[in-house]
Structure prediction request, 122 residues.
Amino acid sequence: MARIAGIDLPKNKHIDRALTYIHGIGLASARTILDKVDLPYSMNSDDLDAEDVNRIRKVIEDEFVVEGDLRREVSMDIKRLTDLGCYRGRRHRAGLPCRGQRTKTNARTRKGPRRGAAARRK
Prediction:
């Protein structure tokens, strides 16, 4: 089992799909990485040898921000917005959608479960 950027790649998957398990790498990025290290997309993650893993790891370390560093960057960006008090920061603070979606009927993922009429009366 290959371990890249602190993530164990899943077994028995094509390597282009397996790399997407790393936070910050999508399918397009995974295919770019594989092009740089000259590996086929259809190769299974089980078939990687140590040299292939090291080449993939080197490309990811040199050219991509992944896992902990990316999560830290995103959280710092959100903290900056909330500290500024801008519109997006206030929406983050209130737990509401930030990108212009309607909230009268939808947005249950951000707002949480509905509170029924009985809960409002009490």
Residues 67-84 form the longest helix (18 residues). The chain has a mean pLDDT of 91. Residues 68-111 form a domain with the 30s ribosomal protein s13; domain 2 fold (CATH 4.10.910.10).
